[in-house]
Amino acid sequence: MYEKLSTRVEGVVKLAHDIAREYDEEYVGTEHVLLAISREGTGVGAKVLLNHGATPEKIKEQVDQLIKHSMEETWVFGRLPGSPHFKNVVAGAIEAARQLESKEVCTEHLLLALLKEKGSVAYNALQSLGIKIEIVRNDVAELTT
């Protein structure tokens, strides 16, 4: 496993579980992680989203539209099962943190991983909102240096 998840990421993952329950879902998906990053609101990931007009309300609207059409298989992750995409996003966030030589996995790493998880609800919502990985990479570099 990676050296350390930031306290903020630990909170985002917990919030993602809570959001999944709000949706009466029996799994945690990428959409819940995206909503949690946005709702938590203080991390670099949330700031990047807001800088590009992706407010919590707009993200929720996109997710709500997409979630109706998306049912994924589940695997067990923590207390609620996580979708296969969720597992990939966690692994991708760890890899993004390593590539950026970060000492811990932060919300910006989760956001970058969400933008690489093609076919997931979060990826589709971000694409609909015009949030592209190149833009996020540049913003993360500016905000974290």
What does the model show?
The chain has 145 residues and is mainly alpha-helical. It has one domain (7-144): Double Clp-N motif (Orthogonal Bundle). Helix content is 63%, strand content 4%. The chain has a two-stranded antiparallel sheet with strand order 1-2. A hairpin with a 2-residue loop joins β1 (75-77) and β2. The longest helix is centred in the first third of the chain and has 16 residues, at 7-22. It is globular. Mean pLDDT is 82; it is low at 70-78.
Distance between the termini: 25 Å
Q: Under the CATH scheme, which class?
A: Mainly Alpha
Specify the number of helices.
8
The residue ranges in which pLDDT falls below 50 over 5 or more consecutive positions are 70-78
How many structural domains does the protein architecture include?
Answer: 1
Could you write a compact summary of the structure shown?
By secondary structure, the protein is mostly helical. It has helices at residues 7-22, 30-40, 44-51, 56-67, 84-99, 107-114, 121-128, 133-144, and strands at 75-77, 80-82.
Question: Can you give keywords for this protein?
Answer:
Double Clp-N motif; mainly alpha; two-stranded antiparallel ribbon; 63% helix; 145 residues; 8 helices
List the helices and strands and how they pair.
Blueprint: H1 7-22, H2 30-40, H3 44-51, H4 56-67, E1 75-77, E2 80-82, H5 84-99, H6 107-114, H7 121-128, H8 133-144
Antiparallel strand pairs: 1-2
